[in-house]
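Board notes (copied after class):
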Amino acid sequence: MAGLPLSFIEPMLLLGLLSLPVLWWLLRVMPPRPRRIEFPPTRLLFDIAPKEETPSRTPWWLTALRLAAAALVILAAAGPIWNPPVGATTSRAPLAIVIDDGWSAASSWDARVKAADELIANADNDRRGVALIPLSEPARDIAIMPGGTARVALRQLSPKPYSIDRAEALPIIDRFLKATGDCEIVWLSDGVDSGHGAEFLQGLKKIVGDRVVTVFEGGTPPALALAGAENAAAKMTVKVLRAGGDVGSGTVRGLDQKGSPIGEARFAFAPGERETEASFDLPVELRNDIARLEISNERSAGAVQLLDKRWRRRAVGVVSGSSSDTAQPLLASTFYLTRALAPFADVRQGDHGAPQQAISQFLDQKLPMMVLADVGTLSPELRERINAWIERGGVLVRFAGPRLAQADDDLVPVKLRRGGRSLGGSLTWEKPQHLAAFASDGPFAGLAVPKDVTVNRQVLAEPDAVLPTKSWASLEDGTPLVTGERRGKGLLALFHVSADMKWSDLPMSGSFVEMLRRIVDVSGFASGPAPGATSDASAETVAPLRILDGFGAFGPPPSTAKPLAANFRDRATLDHPPGFYGPADGPLAVNTLAATDRITPLDTSVLNARRASYTNSEPRDLRGMLLGAALALFLIDALVVAFLGGGIASLLRRRAAPAALLLALLLPLGLPSPTRADSAADEFAIKATTQTRLAYVVTGNADVDSIVKAGLSGLTLFLAQRTALEAGDPVGIDPAHDELAFFPLIYWPVVPGAAKPPQEAIDKIDAYMKQGGTVLFDTRDAIEAPPGDNGASQTPGMQTLREILSSLDVPELEPVPREHVLTKTFYLLRDFPGRFDTGQTWVEALPRDEDEDAASHPARGGDGVSPIIITSNDLAGAWAIRPDGQPMLPLTPGEPRQREFAFRAGVNIVMYTLTGNYKADQVHAPALIERLGQ
C-alpha cells in the first residue's frame, strides 16, 4: 500500500470510507434546529440570563471525533495486516525461486530464507510445485518439488564465500522454463553487482518473456566488504566497500591467529560514497600479528580480510660496497633501494663502516632478508655464516657492480663471467637492450614488461643446462637480467645490473618496486613446500588448511577445495574458496575480494517485474489496535456529551465526598514502587557473591531444570567432600535479565527445539565469555547420535546448539587433547563421561606448540580458560542425586565407576574455571628448570 508494508484481508470494505461525508451531514443536522414561534410576551424573558444553553447543532470538533471513530471501525473491518506475508498471487502455475547465494547474500541470509519459506508455504497451500534455482550452481539439475521437499532443500542451501557469476546460470534457467512452460518466477536478489550483472539481466529478460516475475530487493542492510589491506610504514589501512544504502559508519576489528582482538578502527562513509578507509594506528609489531580483519556485526566472507606473511612489514637490511654512497647519497644505490622498499618493508641501512661488519650485525639481529649492492669479496667465515642463514630461511638479494664483477665467490645463483658486457665494450651491444617477458614460473610472473627500461651494462652468466630454469627475467637477446634459486629453506637472487642508474634505468621504474615487492613477498614463504604439498621445478602447490564459509566463519576444507599455487594472488573461487592454505606456521591467505575489486548496486529496472521487499518482522494483525482506538474515541464522545449535558457536574455535586475518598484510596495503588526491582537485584547480587556458586540457565522445561539443579547440587556436595571448595547452592539464572559476572561457570542444558534466546541474552553471554567466564553447553543427546563420523553433529540438540552459537563470537574449537590441562586440573582423566560416555568434549583450540620438546610436556594450557565447553554426555544427569542420596537417573552403558568418573570430570571442570592454567605451569617446572640450567 503506497510503499508501506500494509495489506488488507477484505479491501472492498474500505469503500465504506465513502460514507463518511454522509455521516458528517447527518451528525451536523442532529439535534434539529428549534422551531421559532412569535409570541410577544416572551420579550419579558429576554432580560433573564440563562444558566444553561443548548446549541442549535453539533460542534464541529465533536463531529470530527465521531467520524474518526467510524473510520477506525471501517479500517478494522477491512482486516489490516502490517508486514503481510509475501508472494500472495492468484497464479496456479509452478513457482520458481531464483536465489542469490554469493557472499553478498550472507549478511541478510535469514531474511532471504524467511521470504523463500513464506513463498513455499503459499505455493503449498495452493498445491503448486516449487523449484529452487541457486545462482551459484550453474550445473544443478532443476526439478519441481512439493512444498515439503522444497523446504528441506531450502534449509540445505547456504551462501557461498566467493563472488558468483549470475550469467553462468542463464542456460539452466532457459532449459527449465522451456521444459516447464507457464511458470511464476521470484528472484530473491541481494542487490549487489559482483560482475556481469547487466549481461544477466538482459539474458533473463529475454528468457522469461511474458511470464510473471517478482524481484525482492531492499528492506535489509546493504552488504559491506573489505579489500586492499595494506601495512604501510605508519599504519595499516583497509578499504571498506558498500554497494549502497544508508550505512554510514562502523568498526573494523583486527584479530590474531588465535582470534584474540588486537585493535579496532572506525570507518565512516561520506554521503553518496561507496568506498572509505579504516586505519589501524598501532606499533608495527602489533600490526604484524594481525591475521584477520573483519567488520563488526557483518556476517559474510566478503567482510573478512585474511592476512598472511605478505602483509607483514619485514625488516630488510641494505648494505652497499660502494664508497660513493657517502659522497653522493642522492645518487647512491642505497637511495634507490630504500625508496623502493620503504612502502612495504622496514629498511635498515648498515653503518658507514666495512660492509662485512654491517652484514655481521644484520646476521646477529636475525633479519629475514638482506640486500647487498655491489658487495664483492667476503671472508670465508662470513660466507659460511650467510650460507647457514640462507639454509635456515633467509633471503639474500645481490646487485651487480664493479666489485661483484671482479669477485669470485659462490653466493650467487649462477656462475658468472669475469668482467661484464657494456655498451661500447669488448662484449658490446649496438644499442641498449630492453627487457623481455618475465619467466612464467618465477616470482615476477604476471608483471607487465616495462617498455621504457633499458640496460647499458650487465654481468654475464656462464651458459649451462640449468641457466634457463634459474632465470627470472631476461633481456631481449636472451641473457639473464635476474636469476635466483632456492637453497635449503631460503632464497638467493641476483640482479645482473647495479642498484643505481649507472648500468640501467631500471631503479627509476615502477617495475623495480614491484619486483622487490615480489621478492619480499616470497621471503614470507621461503620455508619450502608444506607437508602434503607438491613441488617440482616449475610449480609449488599448497593444500587448504582452514576455509571460510559464506558467513565468514572458519571451518574444515570442503571436498571441492583444491590445492593452489604458492604464489596465488587472485580472488577466491569455487575451487579455491577463501581461507588459509599451506602449513600452519606460514599459511597463504586467499580472500573473497581482490585488492582492486569494488562492489556496485545492481540495477534491475530493465526487468518488467513486480517489486517486493524483504521483511524482518512477523505479520501483525492491526484489527485489535484499531477497534481499541475506536472504542476509546466513543468513550471520549460519551464523556463529552455527558459534560455538555450537565450530567457530570450534577454527579460531582451529589457525590463529591465519596469520589474524593475513593480517589485517595486508589491513587497509592497506581503508583509504582521504585525500590522493589532494585531491592530484588541487590538481594540476587548479595546471594551470588557471599559464596562461590555454580549457575545454570533456566530453560523453562520443569523436568530439565529440576534434574540440572539436582545435578549441580550433587556436584557441589562432591566438591565439598573431595576438595577445599565449599560452594553454595547452585543458582538458576536468566541470561537476559540476571547479572552473569558473579559466576565462574554457567551450565547450559540445551533443550532440542527450544526457541533461540533473545539477542540481549546472546550479547550478555558473549560479553561474559570474553571477560573470563566459562559456559558449559550440554546437548544431553550423545546416545541419539546416528552412526558415522559426522553423526554427533546431526542430533536435534546439536542443531539447536548451532542456532544458539550462530550469533556468538565462538573461538576455534577442538576435542579436548590428551595433554590439555583440563585432563589434569585435579584428577588425571582421559575422557569426560556423564550419563553417556560416547560423546566428545570440545574446548577452545590451543595454539600449536612448535617446541621440539612439546611431546615430553605432560600438560598443555593456553593463556587463560576456555570460554566455552561443549559436551553431549549429560553431565548433570549423572551428577543428579535424590534427597536420600541415591542417583536420580540411570547411566548408559552403566559401567561400575562411570558415575565416579563423571563427578571427577565435574571437579576438573570447576577447578579449571577457578584456577586457569596454573597446573600447566606446575607440571612444566622440570622442563623450565632444565632450560634454566642450560
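Comment from the instructor: DSSP finds 25 helices and 41 strands in the chain. Residues 319 and 359 are 7 Å apart (CA to CA).
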